[in-house]
Amino acid sequence: NGAVRALPPVESYGGAAAAAAAGPLVLVTACGGTTRDELRRAVALLRESGGELAGAVVLCARASESARVWS
Asked: Roughly how many angstroms between the first and final C-alpha of the chain, as a whole number?
């Protein structure tokens, strides 16, 4: 239906399955607040539960943080 919904963080298979049922997903992370291991785990849980990952967004509080993301 094209609606955008905010879902809780994906921390378990059950959470991932609920997110997967909502449709294509855009994973939103915070620069300096989400570790790479947390991101890998969330993506793995979403894939295992049949989720369709449409993309990812990295939120940076300051422009200077973006260099850390892309290095």
From this structure: 37
Instruction: State the average pLDDT over residues 14-43.
Output: 84
Rounded to whole angstroms, the maximal C-alpha distance in the chain is 37
Is the pTM above the cut of 0.85? Answer: no
The dihedral over CA atoms of 64, 8, 44, 17, expressed in degrees to the nearest 10, equals -160
Residues in contact with 22: Cβ distance below 8 Å, sequence separation at least 6, in sequence order: 5, 7
DSSP string computed for the chain: -----------SHHHHHHHHHT-SEEEEEETTTS-HHHHHHHHHHHHHTT--EEEEEEE-SSGGGHHHHH-
